[in-house]
Amino acid sequence: MTPLTGPSRRQVLAGAAAAAAAPLVGAAPAQAHRPTKPKTYDLTVLGTSDTHGNVYNWDYYRDAEYDDSAHNDVGVAKLASLVKQIRTERRGRATLVLDAGDTIQGTSLATYYAKQEPITSTGETHPMARAMNILDYDAVTLGNHEFNYGLPLLDKWIRQLGFPALAANAVNERTGRPAFTPYLIKKVSLGHGAPTLRVGILGLTNPGTAIWDRGHVEGRLRFEDMVATAAKWVPVMRQRGADVVLISAHGGDSGTSSYGPELPNENPCAMIAEQVPGIDAILFGHAHAEVVERFVVNARTGERVLMSEPSKWGQRLTRMDFTLERDRGRWQITAKRATMLNSNTVPEDPKVLAAVRGQHAKTVAYVNQVVATSAVELSAAESRYRDTPILDYINKVQTDTVTAALAGTQYANLPVLSIAAPFSRTAVFPAGDVRIKDVAGLYIYDNTLEAVVVSGAEVRAYLEYSAKYFRTFGPGAPVDPAQINDPAVPDYNYDTVSGVDYDIDISRPVGQRITSLTRPGSGTPVADNDQFVIAVNNYRRSGGGNFPGIVKTQIYNEQQEIRQLLIDWAQAKGSIDPADFFQPNWRLVREGVPVF
């Protein structure tokens, strides 16, 4: 890949704040010589992140306006209204708009223009490019989900943007040079004859992409440490004239990683602020958290670095405000703060809606296609703590697909296991017509299906690792399903496994919870040296979640999207009946007594 740059854009205009007051007429001579107070100027930086394919305030899985228990709204159309409101308020003063990544994946709208009518084939402008170009960003940072659909589609989307896409730590494996634009220095006019302010913006993407999208990037890109990359480029930006340095980073501020230590830290933004001198503020994303304002003191300079994260999906907009003075030919930031705006306070921007209306309508029509009829309602509401038919549906399709593919191979006689996670607590197949949106609501990620060979010992270790999802409850203690899981472990990192029978004893310590692991129906214990094939998604097989024993050579990998396999199976059968696939094979217990 060659470095990619966005086209040039108009410079942001700004105006000066009120001039300092002149000495009073008739003041005493001593007062007449009092130094004039320096003029102050201001800069506002607006930040979005993790918009994840949301343009309209719409839930494609429910085919209705988006709503949640907190009455949040979503979408770039909402963000555009907030941005327009602030630009109007600040007319003539400097305002920049940045995004911290994860833009082109996450909704049926985004999936449609990556999978059903990919922009690489049709040449159509991606809906997120249409929407963001109207909002008129100054730069976007690439998130890890930008790589989900492969580099050709990513490159196509970047070329459709009217502004640069940044990722300084994504390096071309062959040349060792940045594969994308690492930074830009934006010239900002502060008006009233003031010298130009040069704002440096450095983009950092997430190193976890090397695991999560290994199939797309291995041998082509490497992802370097975000802290080290900032330490490399911030001095360069300063040397090239940046008066203010901002970082737009797709990584959280917790300092932890969801994967093992073999890759650079996944969420290092507080570490960047603390360890790298010369940074004024960091807009960050990836964790989907709302961090209104956080200050981290740089260990070398003692300067406070302003940090903010604007939640997810367009629900929030970060606003950073900087006050500046000109002192001896240099710009100085004298004050900085951050606030957060809620997108449910404004209507959707009509220009953004109009630009994406046709694509939105086409997506709505697609997801409402009927694929099968369900004999009964199937719900995922209890899938985290009770074996449910709707997750067995996923495991049935995955098992059938892998079994058929391995027929006639050396692995044909091995039992096939399958993993499925409760991605959505609200997924439902209604009794009667099941539509594409219902299947998409159950399997919300664009994962593909793979398979590897595992031993009985590895199956047990895998299940033990998965079982850390649950809190510990002593025998007889009340168990509230709403509080049953460790909040540090997300639902998507709890896997159920079909093809073996097992008990999870949640009264026992983590690592000692699989108290029974047997062959289905027979009660024969699984031996450590038994061999199985396990059907698994590409995220998990690549190391996502850091599960043991699963990162190994695939024996099946036909790049088939699991969600599409679920749709195809339903269409071929014409009906979805739990009698065809539901096999209760696991339960939560305490000292052998079922919890539910």
UniProtKB/TrEMBL annotation:
Family, as annotated: Belongs to the 5'-nucleotidase family.
5'-Nucleotidase C-terminal domain residues: 370-548
Protein's name according to its UniProt entry: 5'-nucleotidase C-terminal domain-containing protein
Pfam families (alphabetical): 5_nucleotid_C, Metallophos
InterPro entries to which the protein is assigned, alphabetical: 5'-Nucleotdase_C, 5'-Nucleotdase_C_sf, 5'-Nucleotdase_CS, 5_nucleotidase/apyrase, Calcineurin-like_PHP, CpdB_N, Metallo-depent_PP-like, TAT_signal
Calcineurin-like phosphoesterase domain boundaries: 44-289
CDD domains named in the record: MPP_CpdB_N
Catalytic activity: a ribonucleoside 3'-phosphate + H2O = a ribonucleoside + phosphate; a nucleoside 2',3'-cyclic phosphate + H2O = a nucleoside 3'-phosphate + H(+)
The entry's keywords: Hydrolase, Metal-binding, Multifunctional enzyme, Nucleotide-binding, Signal
Compartment annotation: Cell envelope
Chief location of this protein within or outside the cell: other
Domain of life: Bacteria
PANTHER family assigned: 2',3'-CYCLIC-NUCLEOTIDE 2'-PHOSPHODIESTERASE_3'-NUCLEOTIDASE (PTHR11575:SF6), 5'-NUCLEOTIDASE-RELATED (PTHR11575)
Cofactor(s) the protein requires to work: a divalent metal cation
Span of the signal peptide: 1-32
